[in-house]
Design brief:
single chain, 246 residues, alpha+beta, Gyrase A, domain 2, Cyclophilin, 2 domains, globular
Length: 246
């Protein structure tokens, strides 16, 4: 398994799988992180204070006072050279409602025209794929998911929006995502999801996690409003959208 080590000063280093990307790279990174965490748990690796994952790299942070930097680096490199075990990475599956209508889908018509498809065909294609969450980043709770159908792969907008509404379901290049907060953004907005993706009051604030699977279920504007209201009033919980959830 090919990788390179990037030194990040005297208290951190990054393992980067240069030839891997997308779901393959993300699986390899999750496997490495799991192995390092297991080694920390058994006391085999010491001094690690944090780990930061992307879709093809893992940064390992050590306490500056720890004297065994080279030892830890070599231990992690030894683990990095082994392939991921797909059977151990079966995460949860979510079915999230998305309204692809009106002002909730400001770029749907443009994307359909560029793809040479009807708006309904774009909806069918986008909602007909099960997406793997590669990583959580950019914003707290923001899931980068892959891979979208080649017919819907377009670069980011030339002019990013200064305000993208929370819950916006978007596409760019070979990925799709959901904006958990109102923020600037340059992705193409196809719809909106009423389920909050981040709650600081929860033990695990981010609803979605890397390695999980997300499916989108088209809903009408009336159903979107109902679901949104039920969630706000506590009549419906986010876990209701888990496969097998109640």
């Amino acid at each position: 398994m090919d990788f390179r080590v990037l030194m990040m000063g005297d208290a951190a280093f990054t393992i980067e799988y240069t030839d891997l990307k997308g779901t393959v790279g993300a699986k390899q990174v999750r496997a490495l992180r799991s192995k390092v965490q297991a080694a920390i748990g058994t006391g085999e690796i010491a001094g690690v204070v944090d780990m930061i994952s992307t879709s093809r790299s893992l940064t390992v942070c050590l306490t500056p006072a720890y004297a065994g930097f080279e030892t830890v680096r070599q231990q992690v490199c030894d683990l990095a050279g082994t392939a991921a075990d797909d059977a151990s990475q079966q995460g949860r599956t979510w079915t999230l409602p998305v309204c692809y209508e009106g002002e909730l889908a400001p770029d749907l018509t443009e994307v359909a025209e560029r793809a040479g498809l009807t708006a309904q065909e774009v909806i069918n294609i986008h909602s007909g794929t099960a997406y793997s969450i590669l990583m959580i980043g950019f914003l707290p709770g923001f899931p980068f998911m892959a891979e979208i159908d080649p017919r819907l792969r377009f670069p980011r907008r030339e002019s990013p929006r200064t305000r993208v509404p929370a819950g916006s379901v978007a596409i760019a290049n070979d990925q799709t995502a959901i904006y958990p907060w109102e923020s600037p953004g340059g992705w193409h907005l196809l719809g909106r999801c009423p389920v909050a993706l981040f709650d600081a009051d929860q033990a695990v604030p981010s609803l979605l996690q890397a390695g999980e699977t997300v499916c989108f279920e088209p809903v009408s504007r009336a159903d979107f409003d109902r679901i949104e209201q039920d969630l706000k009033q506590g009549n419906l919980l986010p876990d209701s959208f888990l496969k097998g959830g109640e």
